[in-house]
Amino acid sequence: MGGPGDPPEGTPEGGPGGAEDEYRSVVFDESFVRAARLQEYSARERMADHAPAVRRRPPLRRGLTRQALILLVLIALAFGTAVYMGVRHPYSAPQARRSVAPLRMSVVPLAPQGAVPGAADAEYLYRHSPAAGFEVGAEGIPMPVYRATAHFSESQVEAALIIARNYLVRSSLYPEVLTGRQVHPARSLLDPDQLDQFDQSFDHPAADGRHAPTGWLVRLDPSQVRLADDQIRVQGTLQAAETDSATLEVGTDALFVYALRRAGTAGGPVSLLTVRREMTFRFDGDDLRVGQVQLATSATQAGPLSCAQDATSYLRPLLSGQTARDGRPAGTDPYAMDSAPAVCGTLAAGAQPKV
Asked: How far apart are the first and last CA of the chain?
């Protein structure tokens, strides 16, 4: 370390050294001058401002000191933020997601009491049926008045209603779904835990109350019928309710009325098929976040159908002029614990068009 008279950057190279140098105290290099704390004013400055002969220069700022100060401030801010977040949002162990129950379903054919009425024009049949005042398509399932529940916000309730409505539309109104060409529009809305049950229903249909394709969607046998009019008449309702702190439930009750003709014909008479779908949809927080749904129950009534015809894979409606005859559903085996009882109903005369 240099003495009091040494320049800040040390003794200049090539300069005289040693303790006996008589000029050491009066010879300064450029770095020493720049580091001086006092600076003499010029003659002009002294004349103009009546300033003293010298002025004190501000001390040189060291870059390292400033950077260290900034670093300390940032560390303090980060530490304070971490403490604040730990107090406001303490970490807790994530809760295990509850398993999704399989869909329970029923499909009930409704047999007509006489011949199925028909007409040459679908619009004429609609006007003379109970569906005369129904809306066309999705407009027939309006959004209800809704509000927040104890554990779900208003926006979450709205999302649940929209998803349930979308499932009804995709599974009951899309032509590619109705004719059996596609299942993806409805499948894409399902909670992943129900996809295996859905796929098994179409790969291996069974009348067991769990694996009927017609319990998931409206599916018409394309070998027997085709749509005569894509202006499907619809009337439906939606209702949301909280079942517990983690589950929001939407109940739906909707009627779909289809105008049909025999497959493979360019013309011919038109008849109507009425399908009532009562469904229960469940949602947890994850379902609402990603726009998916759990199907809890599905009850379908459809007519005019023959009770003797299997309605598990496809709905096979009776067309204009046809009757149900005396066909009865297949027998029920009470020893088969996983089978659903064979059920068939009678289609009331007032549910048919008056032609």
From this structure: 117
**Token pair belonging to 163:** 């998803």
CB contact at 8 A, 273 and 315: yes
pTM for the whole structure:
0.72
Question: What are the backbone angles phi and psi of residue 183, rounded to the nearest 5°?
Answer: -125, -10
Token pair recorded at residue 284 = 């947890």
Contact between residue 178 and residue 227 where contact means Cβ atoms under 8 Å apart: yes
89 phi, psi to nearest 5 deg: -130, 70
8-state DSSP, 190 = B
- The three-class DSSP label of residue 152 is coil
Residue 137 to residue 257: CA distance in whole angstroms? 10
- How would DSSP label each residue in 286-329? HHHHHT-BEEEEEEEEEESB-TTS--SS-B-B--TT---TT--P
Contacts of 230 (CB under 8 A, 6+ apart): 175
In contact, 304 and 325? CB cutoff 8 Å:
no
What are the residues facing 110 on neighbouring strands? 345
Q: Average pLDDT across each block of 10 residues of the chain; the chain has 355 residues. List them in order.
A: 51 50 56 57 60 56 66 82 61 55 95 93 94 96 95 96 98 96 96 97 95 97 94 97 95 97 90 97 95 97 92 95 73 56 82 86
Tokens 């702190």, located at residue? 245
Q: Which residues pair with 225 in a beta bridge?
A: 262
Instruction: Return the DSSP state at 350.
Output: G
